[in-house]
Design a protein that fits this description.
alpha/beta, binds flavin mononucleotide, 33% helix, globular
Length: 359
């Protein structure tokens, strides 16, 4: 029996298999007007195809908790009811295919206000659809990015509230799993790492202080996110800095704290918070970080990063390195990866009636 096609139950939600789609920004929402930040036809077609392809869980791309929390002006957002209504069409279809709908709640922090990647991705000035980014400290990501404005304690509290409001809306939109984006050098990750957080108040300095904002967000979201529904957290396991950054040891310690605060699964990524670092990418290069959290804590984990091959994915689960695998770019290439993998491994997977002649 294939491990990839065993269901996984977290709280009262059962995910039909372990082939999951990670959040991947599409940068395709309206940047302004009444539909700003709302998913449209592109998002529907994109997520619908992966659901019809048998993906067990789809975590919808980084969705901003406030307009200033977008990476680009074209990001999805969940700060108003128009957006909630537009997401319902997607969650309804995913559920009709047996796919569990998840959403990543995000604030881009000091890397906010950039252009779409395919038009250069450069920071946008306030007179070109951009805005002034914020962060824990006035430290720019690199020489091309602006220096962010340091958040006041009142603004930190306001942002925590925005995450909770976003979670409430995500629930109303039909999502069954919420994931807090603490990775890749965006706001929560900026606070976690001593590389980007030089604060001297209760939100900076010691490990306890640097993790305070993240845990306040987790607590606020957990309060509004129902007890029967799972809450995930995505972390960058390392900044890939030789010194002065967030480390795999920090991640293991943090995983225990997250579990104590009601997180049900750690989505283990890496990097994005320090510029100019060398990242040794290769097949499954981040799996060891997930495996370490799994071995040293009782928190379930998902692995991500250059997992593309059926045998490779199956092995990660069989070797108990992770509880599930996220396939990003591979699912962009092949929306039916799960269905084809099930055929190869002999697993059970949802096939739409309309496609029954293709089995
Ligand atoms: C187009 C694109 C958009 C992405 N957007 C997000 C995002 O919104 N949130 C996030 O946490 N990671 C994002 N990522 C990272 C992916 O979730 C994933 O971690 C990464 O692509 C590595 O997995 P892969 O090798 O299977 O693609 C994005 C990646 C791609 C390719």
């Amino acid at each position: 029996m294939s491990a990839l096609f065993q269901p996984l139950s977290l709280r009262d939600v059962t995910i039909p298999n372990r082939v999951w789609m990670p959040p991947m920004c599409q940068y395709s929402a309206a940047p302004d007007g009444p539909d700003a930040g709302a998913p449209d036809d592109w998002h529907f077609a994109h997520y619908a195809a992966r659901a019809a392809g048998g993906t067990g869980l789809i975590v919808v791309e980084a969705t901003a908790v406030s307009p200033e929390g977008r990476i680009s002006p074209y990001d999805l957002g969940i700060w108003n009811d128009t957006q909630v209504e537009a997401f319902r069409r997607i969650t309804r279809f995913l559920v009709s295919q047996g796919t569990v709908p998840g959403i990543q709640l995000a604030h881009a922090g000091r890397k906010a206000s950039t252009d779409r990647p395919w038009t250069g991705g450069a920071p946008l000035a306030p007179d070109a659809y951009g805005w002034q980014p914020v962060g824990p400290s006035p430290l720019a990501f690199d020489e091309n990015h602006p220096v962010p404005t340091e958040l006041t304690v009142d603004q930190i509290r306001e942002t925590v509230g925005q995450f909770a409001d976003a979670a409430r809306r995500a629930l109303a939109a039909g999502f069954e799993i919420a994931e807090i984006h603490g990775a890749h050098g965006y706001l929560i990750g900026n606070f976690l790492s001593p590389h980007s957080n030089h604060r001297t108040d209760a939100y900076g300095g010691s490990y306890e202080n640097r993790t305070r904002f993240a845990l306040e967000v987790v607590d606020a979201v957990r309060q509004v996110w129902p007890d029967d529904k799972p809450l995930f957290f995505r972390v960058s396991a390392t900044d890939w800095l030789a010194e002065g950054g967030w480390t795999p040891d920090d991640t293991v310690r943090f995983a225990r704290d997250l579990r104590a605060h009601g997180i049900d699964l750690l989505d283990v990524s890496s990097g994005g918070n320090a510029s100019g670092v060398r990242i040794p990418t290769g097949p499954g290069y981040q799996v060891p970080f997930a495996a370490r959290v799994k071995a040293e804590t009782s928190l379930p984990v998902a692995a991500v990063g250059l997992i593309t091959d059926v045998e490779q994915a199956e092995k990660i689960l069989v070797n108990e390195e992770a509880d599930a695998v996220f396939l990003g770019r591979e699912l962009l290439r092949n929306p039916s990866w799960a269905r084809l993998a099930a055929r190869e491994l002999g697993g059970d997977v949802h096939v739409p009636d309309q496609y029954h002649r293709s089995v």
